Amino acid sequence: MKAFYAEEQKRHDPKAFLSSGAQKPNPEKPERVERLLAGARAAGCTIERPRDHGPGPVAAVHTPEYLDFLEHIFVRWQRIEGASAEVIPNIHPIARGGSYPASAVGQAGYHMADTACPISSETWQSALWSAWSAVEAAEAVMSGAPAAYALCRPPGHHAFADVAGGFCFINNSAVAAQTLRKNVARVAILDVDLHHGNGTQGIFYARPDVLTVSLHADPVRFYPFFWGHADERGEGAGLGYNFNLPLARKSGDAAFLDALDVAFQRIRAFAPEALVVALGLDAFEGDPFGGLSVTTPGFSRIGEAIAGLGLPTVIVQEGGYLCDELGDNLTAFLTGFGGGKKR
Ligand SMILES: [Zn+2]
């Protein structure tokens, strides 16, 4: 399987974030890339650099004012006397029906959901190349590859059309799905990250052409709190095209695979012509977030099961944080997927 990644994706290096009010080192570290590259290579992937795809594929899922914000906010932030080295919001609108703020501080609050996505001088380029890796993988599949892997870092599934959050800036899985839509009428996104793919859900919430399905730790006491509950089913023309499967905390392989079977029923009923897998590896039992208890062999079985859908598949990296097994878990998923047979 081809894998896509550009060196620029490693430059974004966020320093800190707030967790339950406490300042902690930001876990979305550049070193994740090294582990994931090693994991992809061990699964037999060849790593290729994506092309520069320009602004189009990203503009297809994000608003112009948000993209302008992401590209320019760091320079504007530096002009504020006494401002932090990285852009971190400290005020948010309680609802978004008011005026769009002109100030850098106001816009940071408007476009950033939380403190986990600090913006530095390198963030825009890293996020853009991460998205282009997703575009390149989607184009490989559109050209006939049965599957391709995009080593997307920074990750993307918490980014809405105009809001960053949870280490994410550009929604790479959404960009991949929208790119696939050029060739096919219906695309399903299956998100297996520990956390609910709230940004992806938000982007496609009113659309019937992209089915969004997410398995994740129950958000009742877990990030992203406000989204990911089973009663969120879509709206307007998209009603019935969003499907959430919250899992009890510490659920292991058996519960995860059972939920996956339920997800597959919904995906098959949608009859998609292509699939995007939002591949978080943070459901792992040894991940620093510790929300679920999937094992390394479990990731292999998950990959094998997803391959059983028999769909052209773009695998987009989402979460999964530093632990000894991070690379092994990717190898397990990709190897399992490669060995999976259509059922
Ligand atoms: Zn996650």
Tell me, what's the shape? Answer: globular
Heteromolecules bound? zinc ion
CATH level 1 name: Alpha Beta
Succession of helices and strands: EEEHEHHHHEHEHEEHEHEH
Structural class: alpha/beta
CATH superfamily: Histone deacetylase domain
For the termini, the CA-CA separation is: 20 Å
Rg, Å, rounded: 18 Å
What's the overall average pLDDT, rounded? 97
Strand content: 5-15%
Which CATH-level-2 architecture?
3-Layer(aba) Sandwich
Low-confidence stretches: none
Helix content: 25-40%
CATH domain fold name = Arginase, Chain A
Tally of discrete structural domains: 1
Q: How many DSSP helices? A: 10
Strand count, sense and barrel status of the largest sheet are: 8 strands, parallel
Q: How are the strands of the largest sheet arranged?
A: 4-1-5-10-9-6-7-8
| Extended strand count | 10
GO molecular function: histone deacetylase activity; hydrolase activity; metal ion binding
Organism: Mesorhizobium wenxiniae
Keywords: Hydrolase, Metal-binding, Zinc
Protein name: Acetylpolyamine amidohydrolase
